[in-house]
Amino acid sequence: MRKRGINPFIIFISRKIGFSLATYFIFLTIIFLVPRVIPGNPLATLLAKLYRQAQANPELIRESYRRLMEEFGVGRPLWEQYVDFVCRTFRGDLGTSISSYPCKVAEIIAMNLPWSLGLLIPALLISWTIGNLMGAWAAYRRQTAVDNVLLTVFIVLSQSPYYWLAMLLLYLFAVRMTLFPVGGTYSVGLIPTFSLRFIADYLQHLALPLFSIVLGALGGWAIGMRVLMIYEIESDYIVFSRTLGLPDKKLLSYAFRSSILPQVTGLATSFGTILGGSLITELVFNYQGMGMVLFRALLSLDYPLIQGIYVILALTFVLATMIVDFVYALIDPRIRTGYVGG
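and the corresponding structure tokens:
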């Protein structure tokens, strides 16, 4: 039963915040444990470098080793490392990178994150927009030649691996036709500025990786929208409205607005994952972004850097999901009242 005297929306928000915090703690625990089950010593490479630099001073070597063990907490019990990791996370301290010592994890993320956002945000918005429009058009022309062709294209695109599309585009347009650069984020020798020369060069390097992500994601959005639109077109209120003589254009707009809500949810949760970058695409095109940073961190067992990337990724995913729930509850009172048993 609904609790008297308490606004259902307040109860809804309180429960959602509590659930989100619990989810985030689970994410933090997984993020902490997974790198540590990988065999290997993350400080081995860094210590070997220090040994080479200080061969003539054994005392300096011992002091450096003691300081590194203390800074990264490798020698402490696992539970102490976990408590320290959680406390630092909530203070906003992501630690120091092992592979890029003494550079801070936050600095590495700040340097590479804009490039991933510049690639993934446009790719996500373009694929979502075109996919939904094409899916709605296919649903409107269902059981026709247009629908059969479009559905075949959607299925092929949705089942094609990202890396295959990326390599195919790279071979056709960069190697064979030489219309675009083979790889990189911008030409060697250029310094990132807001000049027209740099922007044009960057867009030329951006085109193929962006197009490969758009093609890979478009099919999934279109298939989802087609299914939702067919369900809405065949629903009772659309059938009844058609018998009243409402034009198809009006009916399609109603069906589209009802069908787009689940797709908006998918868009929001997709935004919550873009901070992790697109690993395969960035590797294929040698594009500077979070995917490349994560790949190098995994190769070098850079615990703090791996943890820092996934801490931010988990936070954005949880926040995106929570915001969508709040917006839905504001739009539709049935959600919040039903959630509290009203």
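(Above: one complete record from the training split.) The longest helix spans residues 196-233.
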